[in-house]
Structures are given as structure tokens and as C-alpha cells.
């Protein structure tokens, strides 16, 4: 898993690339990035499967905020990002949400 941030001088946004490695998804058929930036919609940000089996997606996120997110694998299994900036308790029992900070 990895998160790469690229701040754009021309806009007040950060281009963020989220990558979930093959080892974390095993033989998944689909992976979606789900978070408060998309209203926790389970289908609006599907990740692209790369030749090496990793999944990736790039999004533009507004600066000066924190965003909660998780990965949804095959519509049933949730996964956090090991490289998130921090974690906070989820409203669902016994799990946390990953958080990315965009200063």
C-alpha cells in the first residue's frame, strides 16, 4: 500500500495516488476507494488493476483538510492503508478508518 501526494501550484488541490498492492488483495476481482470525499459511495471510485496485480487510483483532494477512507475489496472486505497519515475510530464497531492529511 502506498499514498503519493503531489501538490499542484496552479490549483488549491493535491493529486493523491492510492495504491493497494497485489499481496493485500490476493485474487480480487474489484477494488474501490471509499471515503468521506465521495460520500462513502462504494462504486464511484473503482481502482484500476495494473499488470503486476496492484490496484491504483488518483484523485484530486482539496487542501487544508483530512479525509477518512478505506478500500473495499470485491464489495465485501474492507482494508485500511498501512501508510495512512493516521487512523481514527470508525462508527462501526471494532475497526478504524484510514486518514490522509492534505495541509
Give the total of beta strands: 9
Question: How many domains is the backbone divided into?
Answer: 1
Proper CATH architecture: Sandwich
What structural class do helix, strand and pairing data support?
mainly beta
Helicity level, as a percent range?
under 10%
The CATH topology comes to Immunoglobulin-like
Please, how many helices? 1
Would you tell me the overall average pLDDT? Answer: 94
Key features of this structure:
103 residues; mainly beta; Immunoglobulin-like; five-stranded antiparallel sheet; four-stranded antiparallel sheet; globular
Characterise this structure.
- The chain is mainly beta and 103 residues long.
- It has one domain: Sandwich (Immunoglobulin-like), CATH 2.60.40.
- The chain is built from one helix and nine strands, in the order ββαβββββββ.
- The chain has one helix at 22-25; strands spanning 2-7, 13-20, 31-35, 48-49, 55-62, 65-73, 77-79, 86-89, 96-102.
- The strands form two sheets. Strands 3, 6, 7, 8 and 9 form a five-stranded antiparallel sheet that branches.
- A hairpin with a 5-residue loop joins strand 4 and strand 5 (55-62).
- The longest helix is centred in the first third of the chain and has 4 residues, at 22-25.
- The radius of gyration is 13 Å and the shape is globular.
- The two termini are 21 Å apart.
